[in-house]
């Protein structure tokens, strides 16, 4: 977990950069404004009868700082106010290739040199004024330069260590010295992070910064008045005897020591013909496994694989088998390899098991041993000579090679050149847990993906392992099937549980005891099961390990919402930031990688094919929890954690899985906790223990209830993620949580003073790091006081849902220009005002909007209001649109068809109405996924001219539909057509569709 500890520390250091940047930025802004104002005053005599002496004397008499009273003389001054401050509030990316000093001056050099250069050249200002202004910035200049340089220097060392840790992922995990260094690094990173954030919390730096900024941008007077508390506090916590300066300096020294130790380890490995990046072990097997595995539920797999090995293509073909650990890849390959018909069809057969770490030399020797008579002199040959021998041995023969348990593309690159292609139907079978490897090895043919066993197959395998050829006593059938079901179709889990059952007394009570805790028994009994699964975890890149272990925080058997998981990863600081990608996109890539490695399973997919929910197999979750406890990364408090009062010490992440009868007051105070997630449905909220978690970054209490908002939350100034259920109005003071990135509010809550829909009172426009705002019911957003003067507006805001139509104002959208996902809903109040069309026009201000959910007020379908087509003038950037209850005529859909980037369209609940739809010449040029749900449509036409890119079509709840358009079969890109709960005539029409490669799914009402 060293990698995660370092990335979290880097994020804390970036957070720390804001204070000196803000202080110096404000002071530099003051100088710039004063000087421009002074120059403007010099030009005033030309318009005032040329009286320079009077003006000059007036200027000389003005005390320092008083010139800011002239700010309102020009609009130019107001624009400086906005743009300059934002520049200094931005968090800059840190690049390892640039030196810390160079990087510092690249970012701040213009500002640092601004006052000096202009004051030294004496631009139109008296020396007295110059000296006072120089004193104004010189102290902050020194303070800022010293602090920022130390931060950037430390980050440079940390980024180097991240690269070194990543390099050692697959090779030096077992090196004891390296493990010791990782422990040191974790401890150092945590201590530094804790010290910095505790110092900022105890000194109320965040609160004073917020008050200062609000003051500056709401009061048109001297910009430096009121700054003293904030600046003095920052300098105090930095410059005191054992302050942040001392902490950073000590951390840099310790990091340098760790880097030197890593260099020595690398030198030692080099002297032993290894280095970081090479393997330290050799686990390759020279022969296939000796044990004989039961092949249950593999009949279809065997038939498909046999067909691929014997079919017509004469060229050399690689057949890849992909699946999670323990699912039966090796068993399937073994059955094929041992099949007598296989031996008859091939002249030479060889099996080699690669495993997690391997040496090319041993792999070559293993293959040679299978196809030739290996002699002692072969062992003395070089790798190149061995490869040549193997090539000659296979040349001209029809061969079958099984390469089992491949972990990286590098393995295939090492061996692919030694297999000759004599166009004699030779075959290579390769098994892997990593989908990327399979696709890399054979991109032309689909991989054979292993499936989990169903309940009958699971029970069949369990019986064979426990009873052998004997029949199972009827007494154990029902409980045995329950045990098999709890193994969730994973053959490895079934085999391990069967081993337990075969060694205990064969009584129903014993079997019921096993059924009660199958998952834990599999993990705590025979270690082979988890150890085999642990290979996948041990082989993970460093940047994925924390993300994988974090998934253990969710309850067993729960489907995890991908959006929530990604937001949590971002808030925790696990991500290795990349300039070209958003943090969310990086997190998506991480999840795809974990899925590709068969560690995470897909639950549901979105309409466009993206993963919506995911989950962990029970055994993999047990692996998560075991490794998380070992690393002190995460502690789950559930019914099994009887001794959590002692085990909770020094934990940084807590997850609560207790029932509603549990007393949460028993949870002790742990000041180091950074994440608190509670999945105890219905529990009463107890804020006392929350107040002790002063360094929290993540607080998820969505399953807890309270009559009032717990004010203790407002003190959690480091909070990045907050999810809660609100039965009350949220206070405006929630905007004090300036570091908040994700805010999730589940309602409904009682609005005591407003109308039917609740109003969010907090000042979201002074929350600069807010990325996602999710509200479960439509609410009204209050307008910013002056959107043109909101330097801390949530410019990172990507997701906003759900708000009323009345909140779609230009002022609201002006402070969130980069919004990508928006959910809006017309309430009864909106409907009565009849202003919806005007409000929706403001969507044009959102130049980066990609996804929009728009739901109009539900009306009587017999006499709906008439909307103008202009209501459909959405931003051209839209890629996904969901429309409900708009009751528009089908002819108006041409406005949507013209959206140039639209890929997903969902029309729900009479979004369009009318019996006939005849598409015009306007085509949905990029539409791939199309849903029509609940409408009175009877007849429509569709062809490849209208939908040239359509891949997925769903018709749902179309009770009046008379048939399916004939042109559907002409859309060559269409891959899947679904008809759910439509008319009988439509079902008959759909059953007649016979197009190769098109999946037709029909669901009827029972």
UniProtKB/TrEMBL annotation:
Where the record annotates domain Disease resistance protein winged helix, the positions are 554-623
Sorted alphabetically, the Gene Ontology cellular component annotations on this record are: cytoplasm
What InterPro entries would the database entry show?
Apaf_helical, Disease_R_plants, LRR_dom_sf, LRR_R13L4/SHOC2-like, NB-ARC, P-loop_NTPase, WH-like_DNA-bd_sf, WHD_DRP
What are its GO biological-process terms? defense response to virus; plant-type hypersensitive response
**Residues in Disease resistance R13L4/SHOC-2-like LRR domain copies:** 673-985
Q: Which SUPFAM superfamilies match?
A: L domain-like, P-loop containing nucleoside triphosphate hydrolases
The NB-ARC domain extends over 306-470
> Where does it live in the cell?
Cytoplasm
Mainly localized where?
cytoplasm
Its Gene Ontology molecular function terms?
Answer: ADP binding; ATP binding
Which key words are in the record?
ATP-binding, Cytoplasm, Hypersensitive response, Leucine-rich repeat, Nucleotide-binding, Plant defense, Repeat
Q: Which Pfam families match?
A: LRR_14, NB-ARC, WHD_DRP
Family per UniProt?
Belongs to the disease resistance NB-LRR family.
What functional role does this protein have? Confers resistance to late blight (Phytophthora infestans) races carrying the avirulence gene Avr1. Resistance proteins guard the plant against pathogens that contain an appropriate avirulence protein via an indirect interaction with this avirulence protein. That triggers a defense system including the hypersensitive response, which restricts the pathogen growth.
| Protein name per its UniProtKB record | Uncharacterized protein
